[in-house]
Design a protein that fits this description.
There is one protein chain. By secondary structure, this protein is α/β, with parallel strands linked by helices. Helix content is about 45%, strand content about 15%. The N and C termini lie far apart (about 90 Å). Keywords: Coiled coil. It comes from Bacteroides oleiciplenus YIT 12058. GO terms for molecular function: DNA helicase activity; nucleic acid binding; nucleotide binding.
Amino acid sequence: MEQNPELSLAWQFIENTGTHLFLTGKAGTGKTTFLRKLKAESPKRMIVLAPTGIAAINAGGVTIHSFFQLPFAPYVPDTSFSADGKAQYRFRFGKDKLNIMRSIDLLVIDEISMVRADLLDAIDDVLRRFRDRGKPFGGVQLLMIGDLQQLSPVIKDEEWQMLNRYYDTPYFFSSRALRQSEYCTIELKTVYRQSDTHFLDMLNRIRENRCDQALLEELNQRYIPNFNPSKEEGYIQLTTHNYQAQRINEYELAQLPGRSFTFRAQIEGKFPEYSYPTDEVLELKRGAQIMFVKNDSSGEHRYYNGMIGEVVNVSALGIEVRSKGSDEAFMLQEEEWTNAKYVLDEETKEITEDIEGVFKQFPLKLAWAITIHKSQGLTFERAIIDASASFAHGQTYVALSRCKTLEGMVLSAPLSARAVISDSAVDAFTEDARRNEPDETRYRRLQQSYFLELLSGLFDFVPLEQALKRFVRLLDEHLYKLYPKLLAEYKSETERFHEKVTKVAQKFSLQYTRLVDAAEDYATDKGLQERIHLGAEYFKEQLAPLDAIRSNTMVETDNKELKKQLKIANEELDDIFLLKADLLEFVVSNSFHVGEYLKQKAILSIDDTAPTKSKGDKRSDNSSGKRRRKEEVEEGRGNSSRKKTAAVEVPSDILHPELYKRLVAWRNAEASQLGLPVYTVIQQKAILGITNLLPEDKAALLRIPYFGKKGVEKYGDELLEMVRKYMKESGIKETLFSD
């Protein structure tokens, strides 16, 4: 990679910036090798997706639709995955999937040329929902790998009629979310598949829609009518349609003498049929031409994916094969392919692959012929190509570029200009991308922007202030009478937070931005690191008052809708606060280094329901996420979802906490005995009124808000006895009802 400038620049973009990258290049330029290296060595948390099952298996990832639970219907922008906007699509992601989405740094999409614009916008929709609504793709960096001159997206006429109001082309680069983003294109130029420079030039001219009559005439010199090579030469035919390849293979197999044998794949667990890497049932005879569909896993390098071979012997006991050009036969062993999903390792908090299913079969298929579509990514020494019936953009280029040399290619029908199909939208995009290809200067600018973006995210307290205001607004609108003291505390804290935190942070951003601009090496500059450290210490201390009031907040209501709104607002406030507090603490202890910071942020973004550690554990411990801190806080906060035997927490506005605890415990026990919701026994507002007003008779009890005559008749005597007993124990002689 170090000797390839484009690959090196692509690596730097992924490792050191947050900019989206489209990595493209001719067939055989090393795109797949780059992806393998990235998966093995990059410190960024990533997932790899592809548009089809086969592409996903080959890339070592999963399909886009399965990961994001997307319907196969077109995604119409500004609606809920429906053309008329009426159907409401509901996402049902489990905790692990949500944690993965919220903690990844990088989303890799292989074979991006097959991804439609609306599918990319659907991905954007999901990521915004569950990450950052204000940023394209929820703030996740995209790496899109593919060649637009090869396979194109599939779209039906009726689907395009639905979508052409929103997109000028069906290609991924027309995505509205992508156009809102800054992204770069890097084109790999070194071709490793073909070494014949003249043949490379011919392929390049076809790829770039520069195919003139002279080029067609030169290519058509490889047209050999009725070409019938010997089986030893190992030619494979590439066809435009699946039925053509199937018909050729069935015919050739039938011409062979002897008995045929069938081998059925062993399928365990979940492995969808569209992802099968070869036939579920293989029918073979001695002498059959085959193609290996997987690299030799034995380490002996006897075959590789795309190599042509021959069946030497076959029986019910097994298959003996040899590759073309070799006299050495060997017994072929079954290979395994796995269908995986991404999960979070509970111990390490790393994203790992969980095997859902296994497909076990001999790694081959009949290969007198295959479709051009299925030849994508393969290389052949010799091929017979029928591209005269090409029907899609890039199909002829894909077919011709499978061959290593011009001499190894034979045309079964002459090529015409009509067979070289090009899309003007792709040509225009490619030309524009080449004019704007990034250089080292742009990379340095984007690297610095990424550093500042992460730093600004750390010291941006506006989302926390907004979450605080939303919670206070609910208290003010619905519970100001029940919790006046709590509301006053929150309003005071909101004002203090704005002055001491938000406004100071905005001024602080000007300081560290100037320091970054002035530093020769901002990533290691001691002055900048010291300023960041002091800033993190200051804001960590300024969060303490909010932490104190937040940790002791307990609000009860019988209104189901209000309870739901409070829960959402409270959890949002908790999540933002805890993540911010932990990140500040981490930076105070460890300084600010991008790689370490990203890893810690990812871990803290995980909703970890593991048991709480001891109080002596540091909050920045890598083995725990934000949920642990959240549980620590909730140990001191009343949680209405707890079991009825749990200790009763007392709101700050209660004048007589002990009586309040007794009344709540009595209500919970009564409701449990009757098998009814607690609010049907006595409403929360009535409990607050009784606790603070201390009624001594039924007349006073009737004046308690939200209690009523029926409540007095049913529970009056019991409640009054509890009040009298409490007053006697506490030495209280006068109440608000006393004359």
